Each structure stands twice: as structure tokens, then as C-alpha cells.
Fold each of these.
Amino acid sequence: MKNFLCSFCNKKHDIFFETEFGLPEVIVKELDSGELEYESGERWFIIQKKYFLVKGVIEIPIIDYEKKIKWLVWAMISKEDFFEYTSLFSTNKKANWPKEGTLAAEMAFLKKSVGLRISLDLKEKNSFPSIKICERDSELGRMQEEKITMEGAIKIMELFYHDELKFNGLQV
């Protein structure tokens, strides 16, 4: 399935199996104001030499479908883990991974995403680390653990296309 008929606008839309989420809105506003000191790269972000963020991938399996939904998101980790990550990124060494952190991505279709506890694991050399949600009672944790239906994946896509329809939670 490459596209679906949207229940909101009655038009066909493509299904995005891979989507990237930006920094949380509150951080973006602060950065735009020019009041925050920061350094950044393609895969990392340091704010005020105090908050250390890296990009990682959350995979959501779809029941009876070979593809997974993959979301590229920001995660906050400790300073020590951040510098270990940046030194190991382009090697095949894993050291003492996975590491714990918190999710720093706003997903409007979920009741809660920012601040969820996560486990960040290095995969292959030069690839984004994988993110596993540790809080199984959260919507995102349940989606990752229990898988979602294709209908659930389509509900998520509808919200991506119709961002102005801010839902307070999604049942998939």
C-alpha cells in the first residue's frame, strides 16, 4: 500500500513510512529569539553546554505488513553518553550501549511524547541509533511493543497531512 483515501479531505495521500520530527517547538522558539547558546551538527545538538541531543530512529511495526514506520526523532542523553556516541558513531565499536535518555520530539497526535524514557542503541556504523520506548504504558510505548494495524498507520498519516487537527491522543 503506497497511498490511502483520507477520511478528512477525501483525497488520496501517500503513506510516509519514514518521517523526520524537528526539535520541540519550545526549543525552536528559544533558538529563534537568539537567547540560547547552541552548537549543532546534522545528527546532534548541544544547548547551553547543558542539554545534549542526538537523532535516533523509533520503529513502529505494522501487523501483517513487511515495512515498519520509522520516525527520525531527537533524544536527550547525558553529556558523557553524548561524547561517547560522537566518538563511536563512525566506528563499529559499541562499548557499553544501549544508553538511557529521554525523548525530545513533539508528536501532536500523541497525548505525550516529550520526556518519555528511552533506550538508545547504536546500530551499524554511520547509521542513526535505534530508540526503544521504556514506558510501556505510554501510547508510543504500546505502539512499539504491540505493533499497530495498517488502519492505525493510516490514522497517523491523516494527522500528518492535516496537522491543524490537533488530536489529544490517538487510539491505534
Amino acid sequence: SQTPLSQHIDKPLRRHEWTARNRTWTRSQLDRERADFFDTRVTGRPEVWQVLKAALEVLWEADTTTAQSIIRAAEVTLPTGDLSNGAYDSLGNYYALPEWIVSDPTNVAEDRPDGKGDTHQRDDDDDLTAEEDTVEEQDEDEAIRRREEKGKGVADIRDMVKVRARLSENLPDVIVSIGPEESVRSLARKIAEESGLLSIKRVRVAYMGKILKENLSLKDQGWKKGHVVNALVFNR
């Protein structure tokens, strides 16, 4: 039988450092082979692979804190804290990750001038560590509130859907109602409001291991009615 989660050793996430010895890695090779790796996983649960990929994408940008939040919110445990030594999901399944997936080698080679170059670029909308947009967010929140007040009679109450959000800080789940076309940014604000975090914390919404784009609706990003979303809580 598989070991229950409570019995797994779980160490804090730490960065993995290594030097390539048997082959030369360029930026474009790393990007291409990482994409291929996640496209070809056949063991384990797909949603856990998505969580690990989302965590690695921010870890590659040196944001260990956010990566740890994503892993913890999904109840994934790290026996050594180093993802190159693998991870366990809440059912006890083991996920092996080679070191070239976990981090760049210290000796990444330059791409040839005619090569593809760096294909690993993150959408500005997914930048979890930027704090300079806080004022802009607050202005956006205010605009959302004004639009909601103005259009209260327009949205049919029968069209509203209930969304259960699981918070990353050991807080109880919250359930909020949103319109079918309402943005994820608006949902995040409602979650923060409902959990009493609005003025002190920032919430980002994740689903199936992926951080959702704030300007799109849940439905536009594949969410199915009745599914739980993860609410990752950060300091403002």
C-alpha cells in the first residue's frame, strides 16, 4: 500500500545547482526538451504534472517562494526539498524529475546565431513577482466594483455560478458567486474579500496546476462547473 501523505518527509523547496558534463546544453535545447518531457508523461496524475510544470516555470525565474506556494497548495511533498530527487502527490505516487528539467546547468552554451534562441518567455500577465502593478490592480479592482454596481440588474441571478476556492494558507475554503463571463481578476478579488484578506494580501487563482490569466474568465480557461480552484495567497 502507498504511504499516506502525513507520513511523507516534506522539506522546504530549494534550488538545484549542477554542471553539465556529458553533453552541451543550449537555451533552445533546454526549452525544447523540457516541453517534450511534459508532453510525454504517461505515469502519475496529469494534474500533478501540471502543478510541477507551473511550479518549475516560476522556479526557473528564481521565484522559490511562489513555486513553494504552488507545490504546497496542491499537497505535493518533497522528500529532500530538491525537485531533482523527485516529489510525491497526496496519494503517494512518485514523480521523477531529471536535473535538466529542474534547473539550468551552470554552463549553458550560447545558441548559434541561426538557432531558435530563447523560446522560454513568460507572459507579462503571468509575472507573479511583479509588485509594481499593485496600484494598477487596486485601480482595476475599483473599476470592477463600479461596473458591478452599475450592472447589478443586468446579470441574471440564474446565470451566476458558485466557485469553491481552496486557499494556500491553511484557511478554510470559500465559496463565491460569479457571472459566466466575469474575469479571473474579479474572482480573485471576491475570494480575497470573502476570506478577509482583501486589504493585506494578493490572491492569484490557479486551476489544474496552471496560474490563470486575470483578464479572461474561468470558462475561457477550461474550468468546469463544480471543480475546485486553488487560491494562492501572497503579500501585497
Amino acid sequence: MLFYYWLLAFIRFDEEITLLLRRKIYDLLIPIVRQKIQLDMFGFFSFLGNSAFIWILIVVLLLIFEERKNPGISKRDIAFVTTFILCVSTAIITAQIVVKNLVKRPRPCSLNFRLAFYLPGRRETNCPKDFSFPSSHATIAFAATTVISAFDKKRRWFYYLIAVLISLSRIYLGYHYFLDVVVGAFLGWTISKTMFYQLRKTSLGRP
């Protein structure tokens, strides 16, 4: 019984943090960005995170630039691609197939009116049908970013910025609770760091 009340309090806390964060984002942007533009902007970043496409594109571009500087396929290039594929694939399977179906947390947009209808006068939202915890967008984004940043340290701030914006977009649009995203981001980061550690034993994962 005690665990039940603790769980309810925890869920309530997560809801309030989610609402507070969305309100802060809205208040911060509204002086310079209209509601409709906010919706379009976060919708765009959410779309970027719908699959690993944006991260695959970044990997391809980095390989093209590397090819121009150093023609030929190097061991570093092979390590980069191999590590990326392993980390992102593991992140997708872990978050989307394993954890979501174990926890089975409903999405906020399917349960909570305050979280689902985020714009005044808006009466509908396109709520995804799968479960909420953890955020697959955040898991994939931070798994990919961790790998890419290890091989391109100069622009790591840019990659993490994209990952953060993709993650925030899911909260703003009412698709995820705050902790869905935080745990997803940590899970993605942990998967990549663990994979690096394992691959380093074979010398394949060294940037």
C-alpha cells in the first residue's frame, strides 16, 4: 500500500514538472515567437527524431568530409560506422521494444487534458499509439549524439543541441512526461558509453 501511494505521488510530481517545463518554454518564447510558430518549430524537431534519419545523415556527411581530407576507407571510419549502428540499434530495441512494453505507461496526451491540449482553442492532438516510457526519441538522439560526438569532438555542442531540442519537442507537444525524456536520454547515453567500453576491448571502438 505504501508503494502504491509513493508511486501515485511520483507520477503526480512528474506531471507537475512536465506542465511547469512546458509553461516555461512557452513563456520564454512567446515574446518573440507566436504560438503557431512554436508549434511548427517543435513539430519540426519532433519530426527529425521520428527515426534515426537525421543522425544517419550527419554520419554520412561526416564520412564525406573525412573522405575529402583523407581519401580511402580508414579503420577509424569503419569503427565510427560500426559503433553507430550497434549503439543506435541497441537503443531502439531497448527503448521501443523492451522497456516500453514492460512499463506500459500511457502517454500524457492520451490521459491528461492539460498535457494533451497545449494551445488555447486547440481541440485535438495527434497522439502516438504506443507507450510513453521511456522516450524513444530521446534514447535514440542521445545514443547517436554520444557516438557522433566521440568521433567529432569539435562540433559536439551542435549534436547535443539537436538532441536536446528533439527531446524538448516531445514534452512541448504533450507526447511525453518529463521523466520519460530524462530517462530516455540517460538510457541512450549509457548504451553508447557501455558499447564504447565493450568495443574498446577489441580496439574497434577507439575514435
Amino acid sequence: MMSNKNKIVSTIDGNEAAAYAAYRVNEVCAIYPITPSSTMAELADEWASKGIKN
């Protein structure tokens, strides 16, 4: 049985989940800035500017 001691759990919306997955598996990600996907682009830009590795 796996231990839950070292797990980090958080609640995120669908845009953040999609941005997280896209950022982690791609070197380049082109996102057209329309309202539903703007959050994805903003998060990817924030993570990149902080130097978070993908």
C-alpha cells in the first residue's frame, strides 16, 4: 500500500489542469489567446518566467 504522507493535493479548474499537462509534456506550446484558453497561456507564461522546468 502506498503512503499518502508525501503527496501534495490541490483543487484546480479545467484550464489549469490542461495548462499543467501541456506545459509538462511540450517544449513549445502555441495557445491562441481567446477567453477560454487565456488562463492556460497566462499560467504557462508565469511558470516559464519563474524557471519552472517542463
